[in-house]
Hints:
By secondary structure, the protein is an alpha/beta fold.
Amino acid sequence: MSAMKFGTDGWRAVIAREFTFDNIKTVCQGIACYIKSMGLAKKGVVVGFDNRFLSEQFAAECARVLTGNGIKVYQFAYATPTPVAAYAIRLLEAAGAVMITASHNPPEYNGIKFIPEYAGPALPDVTDAIEDEVSRIIENGRIYELDLKEAVTLDLLKEIEVDKEYTGQLLRAVNPEYIKANPVKVVVDPMYGAGIGYLDKILIELGCEVKTINNYRDTMFGGSMPEPTDSLLADLKRAVVNYKADVGLALDGDADRFGIIDRDGDFITPNQFGYLLFDHLLKTRTFRGPICRSIATTHRLDQIARENGLAVIETPVGFKYIGEGMREKGCMMGLEESGGLTVFGHIPEKDGILACLLAVEILALTGQTFKELMAESARQYGENYSVRVDIKTSYAEKEMVKANLKDFQPKTLAGIKVDRSNEIEGRQFILEDGSWVLIRPSGTEAVFRIYIETDSEERLQEIKNEVLTSLGLH
């Protein structure tokens, strides 16, 4: 195995090329060494997996290695969402969880991530330590394994099921009475992933009329990716319109991200839903605290926070930093523009099932569509348009554009003066009128991600064209 690098949310690779049984055992041995070095081995580790090809077999290999190191394993018997595995850590007071998932990646990928004892995404100090352990094992280390039948005999392996407790936790984080009082018609799309059987079951119990699509295991994900974005939710859009539903709700491959389709079949972005949810929480909850968002997420949250005398905590991209803010700062809500969300009182891990339930709560209470709620928000706070553009380049072009970005010091963009800039993540330019643009080179691909937010579609296009031209990305 070559050197392994944990990305924003674990290590992912192509099955049979790099993601092999031998390499998984090496990574799990590194995780076991880390757990023992932290003095947490006696607390045990949760092991979960998604619906991808061979995920349950990869999870079994992890269990063999962890139990071989004397660490008790609490293993799910069936595909489980990442937020359920994270919740199990808290419920069982475990040392963490190993989750076999490549989330929303293409079907040929699988992945592994470690969720520490705080039940949120691992921070760099944890992933760096695991990487160091893995490197030592690759060089000259030994992998310890135990037959799973023997592990059961030695009380080192226990099968678990926490759906009832997790559902109870969700129903404490949302207000089920709002939904029961005015149940809505919903189409649920778990995108063939680990979220099958969660959201639809809860909504039916709350009185909603539910139609479910793509609700069986397909390791090819219908020939697409299990990513709930505008371009990949054609099935859900069609179903919402055909069934005359109030809303369509989608989950990604491990159910930690969400997608929303409004009654007319249009996609509601996580940014749009995020600011509507923040406003809703302020009207329906008594708790007050900061709002936590990534640098790439809508600043409409900042406007609402200022109106209510609340602080904003801005983080680099990656929900691990938002999870840290939720744990340490008592935030009301954490949001990233790519569809990660959690709220105060819930686990500090993104949870697509929670986000979807909160979406239904909003619709049930207001009796309005998301488009109508967005129009109300625009009347109060002004128009808001945001976009993310991914530009693929060659690796040679990427280096050229990175050099251009380093020298990029615009005084104005779209005729508006640049007020300030920062380099928390890539380069961000904030204009006098509150508009902003963020340019981030991907850490793993020859891709540039450009995020823009402003008050009109025309200005958004002007900023986009000017940035792309200046950086040589046209």
